[in-house]
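Hi there,

I know you've been waiting on this one. I reran it after we fixed the sequence typo, so this is the corrected version. Both the input and the resulting structure follow.
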Amino acid sequence: MAGARREFWGLDDSIGYLARIAFRRFSMVVDRRIARHGLAAGQLSLLCNLSAENGLAQHVLGARLGISEATVTVAVRRLEVLGLLDRRVNRGNRRETLVFATERGYAVALALGDVAGEIDRVASRGLSPCEIRTLVELLGRVTQNLHDESQRISGRTST
């Protein structure tokens, strides 16, 4: 960003701050594009995950999306009220709740599935395919590093 106007109060060279700003802007654009369906960006991610692999446990959904189980529960309840998801107790483990996309949920996920791809194309405008691959790889590594650190801090790993 050398030579660019410093619009983030001197934080424009912070990976965390720029990632946060990018996330907020992605979410804002997704929210605006899907608002007529009564969904928010996080709910769409949850619904798309279930459309790809139905019958997941709530804790598995939370781990995949990087959100707490409590947040998953709230989102699942909201999507259940909208008729997009069903919850069922796991017969093999009665303490576990499995979440399933309904037919209507699949239809909404299909209709909105291209939104993320469209927004990715807008966000990566002006980047070469090589730069996009590099960005995805680097963000994946940053995400993994932060996950590993979170696990270490919480005492879940021995590193």
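Quick highlight: The first strand starts at residue 56 and ends at 57.

Best,
R. S.
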